[in-house]
Amino acid sequence: MGPPDEVIDFHHPYTPYDVQTQFMTEAYKVLQTGNGQIGILESPTGTVGVDLEDEPDWIIEQTLQRKRDDISKKWKQREQRLEQIRLKEKARAARSAKRRRIDDGNQKKVLKNPEDEEAEWLLDDADEPTSQSDALSGLGKETLEILSRYGLGGLKRDKEDEEILEDGVKIFYTSRTHSQLSQFVAELRRPSFPSSMPSSLVSGEHGAAVQAIQEPVKHLPLSSRQKLCINPAVSRLKTQSAINDRCAELQQPKSKNKCPYVPKEENLNKTHQFRDTAHATLPDIEDLFHLGKSLEVCPYYASRTAIAGTEIITLPYPLLLQKTAREALGIKLEGNIVIVDEAHNIMDAVANVYASEIRLGELKRARLMLGVYVKRFGKKLKGENRVMVGQPEQGIVDAKELLRSKGIDQINLFKLIQYIQTSKLAYKIESYVAYVEEDDSNKAAPRSSTPVLHTFVSFLVSLTNLSSEGRIFYQKLPGAAPDIQLSYLLLSPTHAFSSIATSARAVILAGGTMSPFDDYRAHLFPYLPEPKLTTLRCGHVIPPSNLCVRTLAASRAGDPNSTFEFSFQRRSDKAMVNQLGLAILNMCAVVPDGIVVFFPSYGYLDEVVAAWETTAAGESTPIWTRMQQRKAVFKESKGASSEEVLALYSEAILGDGTSDAPKPRGALLLSVVGGKMSEGINFSDRLGRAVMVVGLPYPNMHSPEWKAKTEYVEMTVLKRALEAEPGVDRAKAQAAAKQAARDFYENACMRAVNQSIGRAIRHRGDYAAIILCDRRYGTERIKGKLPGWIQGGIQGDGQESGLPQLMGALSGFFRGKRGT
Question: What are the CA-CA distances from residue 436 to residues 423, 442, 554 (Å)?
């Protein structure tokens, strides 16, 4: 790392703001420090990959700089070894061509025996040795060698070739959705970088010419078969598990219809072309799909050949956070960099990746399907197959036995799961049952049945996690056909995420609203010493005059009877709900363009709207009708399309673009904290001149899940305290543990609030008002968990602010912005 006053050229496409330079510099220090350093960085004006004036360039700079440091001594040796590989390829291609001519001649003499149409569902003999991954088992030896050498599957690659291809630090960048990853790719295309080839390797004027070359970063997006498969026979299946198993099935030697797109000797040139095109063009997922389709080569497998030599790899959360997914893709984190964007929800994301559920009805269906399969093929099963297929019945014979785990401890779950996955048992049984259930006339086109066996396997996998970090819940499901559901929930992300944190050179958790920070230290990295954690809270780029933050504690300041407190006990108070409607109605009169109001839940939003639609005592017109008279009103609904609502909301503010259309009168959008509108959607400029958050969206403390979470936090904090200080006062330690559980619960609420607030004000010239409607926002405890730039902008006495004071502040703020 250079001296403190060293100016680093980040090759930013624009002149960065001071806070962006601060963010980039701190992130660069984390990457340079390495050795498992963790950075938790908050920047409200776009983090990695979110904003047009953003930081993807410094990410690339770190890799290129490291490459410049060591590439000189490796370059000549690398080129010599690559030439040897090229010669080997030519010789192998010649031998393959000769072998194909011989095989073609022999095939004319051999009569093909007709196969039993049901043979494809019979399990392979488990006694036959196999050392390959399930996705590639059954391929020819020479094909496996080629796939191995080019990084396909979880196969062992030649060490010498691997050293050639893996010659630099890789950056694994992950975000919540594919659309966010696509935004990041668009940003990667903006900056320009000098060549990473050292001028010392090229003499004279050629050296200067090489250094003048602009070198694009080598980027590769990774995704699942569900996103990349181009084989209609596979991609039409409904679930990821079914797609994975069918894909592997079509690669087996005895498969009647082998997948023609899997990389093999015959299309090796196309695979190379795919790899080289990917390295040269900075593609996103859609680009890879269309590239594979045009070349007629599988994008899923071909993209894995391009991992070696790639500098930045983008992938969605599940593919990075789950260890089995990383192993399946051949991802190695050792010595590389991991960047998690939108990381405010990282702990929930880890828990969701490892969560699973299954219903009693599905278990009964699984048992029935297994019985159908055994009845048809039981006598044909040999050796271990007969034993292993019989084992799952013991665990699903009786729901009570499953709940009590009687008999389950006699089964080696790890071995059973491995067997189910490698034998494709779930896929074969489900496909066969679907085949049997089809009418005779449709037997030629079997359909996929409900994937209950895949669900069962996922639940079994959950049972292999650390028992201390997870819980199993049951729930009775009402309805015409009542059912019971078992759910597995990972309570702590510590162990699951440690496999990433302890392997990578450095990990950066970045987001626009990372506050409050305490949970990351206490529950994600409790094992790390303080020097290993770097934290940063950047301010906002906007001037203070562009932000108006107010708390609305009551409709009338100082009147305890008009207090706004949307707690579970008080939120249904009709008078308070009515006063909330009048407050929003008054805001519609002074706030131009768009207003977004976030409610704690969909259920409460529906309850409030229903109250507003009713005419209150002493009023001639319902509040809901009066709102619609002032602005176009839109409401987010659970399960409905957010894109359609957003399009109509935007049109009501910006107009439809026609010259004869009436002047837009603005719009009001009623949304939900934690809903689609609060995650990843920006209400910049006219779309969000005011954002209001109603109440504090605490999770349901009485739900079994949250009871288990808080109990787990209390238990682990107490255990750590007693282990760290054996002589500590137990009563004090217990009190501290209970407080830690309360903080964890409250922090979950405040992260959701902060994420909703962050939807407004997206660039330096933007301006907006933020209204926090609940008296509790005025307390120091809650205020201290807001982002720093919000805390600094709060005006007035938080607990004494009434509607008249709010309206005066809003009127003055927007009056000063007219014409801007």
Answer: 21, 10, 66
Does any domain span residue 109? no
Within 540-641, residue ranges assigned H as helices are 574-590, 602-612, 623-630
Q: 314 and 184 in contact (C-beta within 8 Å)? A: yes
Nearest-angstrom CA–CA distance, 263 and 780: 61
Cα–Cα dist 59/168, whole Å? 13
**Domains contained in the chain, number:** 3
- Distance, in Å, from the CA atom of 98 to the CA atom of 91, rounded to the nearest integer, reads 11
Residues 6+ apart with CB under 8 A from 662: none
Q: Per the domain annotation, does 506 fall within a domain?
A: no
Instruction: Establish if 86 belongs to a structural domain.
Output: no
Task: Give Cβ neighbours of residue 649 (< 8 Å, ≥ 6 apart).
Answer: 594, 632, 634, 667, 669, 687
The better pLDDT of the pair 16, 786 is held by 786
Same domain, 524 and 467: no
The amino acid that residue 651 corresponds to is E
Q: Are residues 187 and 50 in the same domain?
A: yes
Question: Residue 565, Cβ neighbours under 10 Å: how many?
Answer: 17
pTM attached to this predicted model: 0.79
Domain that holds residue 591: 544-696+767-815
**Mean pLDDT taken over the chain:** 78
In terms of DSSP bridges, do strands 547-551 and 506-511 run parallel, antiparallel, or are they unpaired?
A: unpaired
Is the model's pLDDT at 215 over the cut of 70? no
Six-digit token string for 358: 């299954």
Greatest distance between any 2 Cα atoms in the chain: 99
* Cβ–Cβ < 8 Å for 428, 252: no
Separation between Cα atoms, residue 474 and residue 598, nearest integer Å: 31
Distance CA 513, CA 673 (A): 14
Summarised one tens digit per residue, pLDDT across range 526-570 is: 999 999 999 999 888 888 899 999 999 999 888 888 999 999 999
Question: Do 34 and 71 belong to one domain?
Answer: yes
CA separation, residue 257 to residues 244, 247, 764 (Å) = 16, 11, 58
Are 529 and 548 in the same domain?
no
Cis-peptide into 592, omega within 30 deg:
no
Closest residue by Cα to residue 136 from 300, 322, 314 = 300
Task: Quickly state the pLDDT bin for 94 (edges 50, 70, 90).
Answer: low
Alpha-carbon distance values, 164 to 160, 329, 336 (Å): 7, 20, 16
H or E stretch at 42? strand 37-42
Yes or no: say if 357 and 459 are a contact pair by the CB < 8 Å rule.
yes
Number of neighbouring beta carbons within 10 Å of residue 573: 15
Answer whether 23's CB lies under 8 Å from 55's CB: yes
Residue 42 belongs to some domain of the structure: yes
Same structural domain, 191 and 46: yes
Taking only the tens place, the pLDDT of each residue in 342-366 is 899 899 999 998 888 888 888 888 8
Of 571, 579, 582, 517, nearest to 697 by C-alpha is 571
**Spatial CB neighbours of 302, under 8 Å, sequence gap ≥ 6:** 263, 270, 271, 274, 275, 292, 295
Residue 766, sorted as left (phi over 0), alpha (psi -120 to 50) or beta, turns out to be beta
Distance (Å, rounded) from C-alpha 599 to C-alpha 671? Answer: 6
Residue 695 pLDDT > 90? yes
What tens digit of pLDDT does each residue of 233-249 get? 999 887 787 888 888 87
